[in-house]
Amino acid sequence: MCGIIGYKGNKNAVEVVLNGLKDLEYRGYDSWGIASLNGGISLVKDVGKVSLITLEDLKLDPSKMAIAHTRWSTHGSVNQTNAHPHFSGNENFALVQNGIVENYQELRGELKEKGYQFNTETDTEVIVRLIEDKLKITNNLKEAIMTAFNKLKGRNAIVVINKENQTIYAARNGSPLMLGIGEDEFILASDPSPLLKHTKNIIFLDDYELVTIGDTYHIYNLQTNQEIQKEIQTLTWDPEQAKKGDYPHFMIKEIMEQKHTIKQALVQDPELIKNLAKEINLAFGVYAVGCGTAGKVCLAGTYAFSDIAKKHINFAFGSEFPNFHHFIQSRSLLIVVSQSGETADTLEAMETVQEKNGKVVSLVNVMGSTIMRKSDYSLLINAGPEIAVCSTKATTSQLALMILLAYAAADRYDEGMVLLKNTADQVGLMLNEEFNNSLQQLAEKIKDQRDIYIIGRGANYAIALEAAIKIQEVSYIHAEGFAGGELKHGPIALIEENTPCIAFVANDETKADILSNAMEIKSRGGYIIGVAPENNEVFNYWIKVPDVSYASPIVNIIPIQILAYYLAIARDLDPDKPRNLAKSVTVK
Ligand code: F6R
Questions:
Q1: To which CATH superfamily is domain 3-235 assigned?
Q2: Nearest atom (ligand 1) to Cα of 343
Q3: What is the pTM of this model?
């Protein structure tokens, strides 16, 4: 949800922030902008994809200091004026924001009454004018930023470039911001991807912290103005992992990486897993919470805990969870799942639990992310950078850890490890050229369909929901997932001659019933695509997957990720950057 970046150092800052924006583009891609300091501040911004822009296109002189932004619009339409950075009236400073100023209307009203003019429809311009207003009192930009920032409501992070003292200021509350410390250079960004090329030494800023970057950096508590010392951490990701390599798109690269990412997810401290399982067993009320794909993993997790550990776990999407706050108490435990570790709705769910002194266990991919740092316990899923907007490899790693926790909660950790290691091996064998080609052919066959339905039972009901969002987000075909037994209660009316319906038929106790549901659809003209270890006469098309008992959600979602990818390709769409979406959803 918007990417922000700032650089001060010996390299050409314009080039660094332009390349950084390309790394951050998956956070938002409707417009972009750069402000560079070279005597005065020069500003270039435009609508469209920054990935298409070259250094020459910018026509900016090389400089040592610049800030930049890639936008996923929240307030104000997508146009050049609304794109960030936004200038102060005297062009002494320019500012970019990631997040939302929830009280922007109120602040804007107050500032208008004081005579300030607004040139854009954005909430971000309110921050600029507010800083200008505070400057009239203090004449000190750092203090003005602090006072203005403390008046903002909502989750946001800002970066400001100042002409007069050649300093970059950045502050955060709720939206991610980190500082990379290289040799004679400093780089600020919303996530680690643009930092990797320059340094692995990172300081993760916490809420209500402000950093100034002049000759060196200083970090302050935004509320007390006290300088603070923070630990420098080392990133474990490799810059090569964030590159496309020989693949045409990140999505297919990340799908293929599942040959080894599931194994990597299992590289955990066994004692920690067992202790977390104990915490889960002892808790009074356990909730699994995530958004989008991560939410589907949580739902699948509730079935895993029921089937394997005979343990009841509640599920809610992050945005819905606060409705259950009445039932949270100090013995409650929240299992949070998030690739980015920055999703605002998920963070809000965590806050709901932490306000009542409950505990949070998180499964996250991005090291140092807010969710990781705010959790009582956190497991890194070790999937490496996931760049495509559509989550793929993170999903199967999250599923593997959920299933492992369920086995540990049943005191069957070793058995769980054997199953999951075998599943990881089976995925390695399944992901081959022949498999992908067959799915590409299937995509060609169904690419012009208006609707695709997906059914599953038990944990594979969650996978039916996940399969639907994979197809929706990259192919823009209407896809909908249902619990197999629910179709006859209404949705079956939608089935017409040749409507594709994907059925997940795991070799478990749900098999007979889901096959009956598939038959009910076939009898009404549906075209049944069975995802199963064994063929069945009800299938019009069979996608063979390994038989891995309780790990079936892992092997079942992978072919649909591939199918979704090839549907996007067949429909001439960019699978890495689906319309209207952003990778990291840091607004509510
Ligand atoms: C779908 C997708 C989203 C995310 C959701 C949560 O492919 O990527 O649905 O899963 O926005 O994001 P994280 O996992 O970062 O909390």
A1: Aminohydrolase, N-terminal nucleophile (Ntn) domain (3.60.20.10)
A2: 16
A3: 0.88
